[in-house]
Design a protein that fits this description.
The structure is a homodimer of 356-residue chains.
Chain A lengths: L2 H4 L3 E2 L24 E8 L2 E2 L3 E4 L3 E3 L4 H5 L2 E3 L2 E5 L5 E4 L1 H14 L7 H14 L11 E10 L12 E10 L7 E5 L17 H16 L4 E5 L7 E4 L2 E7 L2 E4 L10 H12 L3 E4 L4 H10 L2 E8 L3 E10 L2 E4 L7 H13 L10 E4 L1
Helix pairs in contact in A: 6-8
Bound molecules: pyridoxal-5'-phosphate (2 copies).
GO molecular function (chains A, B): branched-chain-amino-acid transaminase activity
Cofactor (chains A, B): pyridoxal 5'-phosphate
Family (chains A, B): Belongs to the class-IV pyridoxal-phosphate-dependent aminotransferase family.
Amino acid sequence: MSLEVSQKITIQKVKNSKINQVDFNNLPFGQVYTDHMLVCDFENGKWSSPKIVPYGAISLDPSAKIFHYGQSVFEGMKAYKDAQDDIWLFRPFDNQKRLNISSKRLAMPELPEAYFMEGLEALLLLEKDWIPTTKDSSLYIRPFIFASGNGFHASPSDKYKFIIACSPSGPYFGGKLKVLIEQHYSRSANGGVGFAKAGGNYAGQFYPTNLAIQKGYQQVIWTDDTTHEYIEEAGAMNIFIRINDTLITAPTSDRILDGITRKSIIEIAKDQGIAVEVRNISVHEIIEASDNGSLKEMFGAGTAAVISPISGFGYQEKDYVLPELDNTFAATLKKQITDIQYNRSADKFGWRYSVK
Amino acid sequence: MSLEVSQKITIQKVKNSKINQVDFNNLPFGQVYTDHMLVCDFENGKWSSPKIVPYGAISLDPSAKIFHYGQSVFEGMKAYKDAQDDIWLFRPFDNQKRLNISSKRLAMPELPEAYFMEGLEALLLLEKDWIPTTKDSSLYIRPFIFASGNGFHASPSDKYKFIIACSPSGPYFGGKLKVLIEQHYSRSANGGVGFAKAGGNYAGQFYPTNLAIQKGYQQVIWTDDTTHEYIEEAGAMNIFIRINDTLITAPTSDRILDGITRKSIIEIAKDQGIAVEVRNISVHEIIEASDNGSLKEMFGAGTAAVISPISGFGYQEKDYVLPELDNTFAATLKKQITDIQYNRSADKFGWRYSVK
Ligand SMILES: Cc1ncc(COP(=O)(O)O)c(C=O)c1O
Ligand SMILES: Cc1ncc(COP(=O)(O)O)c(C=O)c1O
């Protein structure tokens, strides 16, 4: 860590760690929190120095704008521990940049890179015993910023809080996913905030997702809001479709989150000699491919869910089942990306980031 | 009030009121809060009895879903005091119903009518000295519900808080508004949450609105996200356009909030013999009307802003100025609706609701 910022990060440690209360062999996703958090306040037009304090309650006035006007953005990252107990992050600067892209779209202040990175590293070094080493587990990291200023006028807040909290976590999904291709509801508008990791994007998905769950699906695949013809993304994952031996994924746009897993998968696949097409893909093309047997795989890709294979999809009251293959792209690509993330393989792309 | 619920509303009063610190002749909008608030918690699948407590800070875990996934809905209402010191609400059951419509779309629990209405009335009776009687002032009322349950999994919260806070307030806008008809950004998607009073809908408007403010406008007029050709609504107002002697406003849809002021204005105007058309209206029709002199008025309508006349609009780098008329529809309709709201006229529509 460079000294300019880290000298200023004050650390207030807990008296007693909660770590002994945690069953690291049965970790849920995102429900157990570590002993400390990083907090940084924006006031009078500038960010204060980050502080590490005991993880604990935040106190807000009932008029705080977060309750009323939805100014909140977040990131999702993971810290991995290898066999030598070294700590690794995966492309963390991309999360840092994306947080600022999200903030800008919601008229929230951007955060200097050093505050994010050095705050995060100091926190991880303090919490390193919390990084699980059980299979498929990692320390899920949640950096977020929300409007903490007060007022019922529908205008941007003058105060914000940046927090990083950490949660030792197991897998996000249990098994393979059955998904519903959405034909009525939508996730984002042209010219809207879909490309931002903004809180409001998620709340809007819950009701349609509940309807899908009631019908026996686990996730909704969103389509464009104008024609419902083109595949966009899922709840917290970008979507890949394999037709014959070509891997296809939608281009990013102002409606789709520019996923770090997505772009890494594209690069790894290309490097493996897999044909990758980044282009619009219509539901009809997928149905046709399913009907003629060329549809081989579908999977979601995201930090939380890593790579989640899809077993089948529903579309207009009909269910389509994907074949059960050996040696899937999903399995190969998942092994490759997690081997890089957990430092089990060489890092030819330069994505791994050592925290020490 | 019926006894079933009100018996259960517990009231914990402040020791010392803050009311003497308030300058009722210089009230800002939504920045001063009364002594008490109503709070009601949803847990284990049900709402607890509403409580009135001193207005004060709310304490939340950093993992509370409001910070991450945008589950928040709200309403905006006003209480008016007449010359006899009687207290009035305007169509409050419509706010109560709309809150539930918003909640449902965000997968949040609906609130029983009695909790809302009797909680609100008990609170207003306690805070009646806070209802201002200075010109254009009222007690702005903010009922809201947000996700207070914890967890980083992107799924609905299992806990919620319903709160009603009150703010003695002056006018929302200063003078006439200069607006920009938006051609790139948008507020809501087909199949999205635009019709809900959801927090995230507002955060998404701030950045484009800031861009408009930098160009000298005060508000953005949103257009549909597919073609940017049809007028939808403004930040917190529905929009009316007068061409010759016909008043036109867009039909409500899943992209547009079903405003209570809007529908009241439609009824009052019709009752006055004004021709009203509820139909899609394109930017081109407005430009043409401006060019040939038939565009007479534009105004916004909403609880906070009441009726806000528009002086002119920008569209594709060009400014269009509206004529300065005597006896505008805006002025007539504003007088009629506020006379009903403040109990200065008969209430032929049955919209006024007495709180006692
Ligand atoms: C809407 C959405 N799409 C895609 C992703 C995947 O992005 P990433 O791979 O950067 O985690 C996420 C999760 O972060 C998401 O929330
Ligand atoms: C987006 C939006 N449109 C319109 C309105 C006007 O609705 P109402 O007249 O019910 O206040 C509001 C404010 O409530 C609003 O937030």
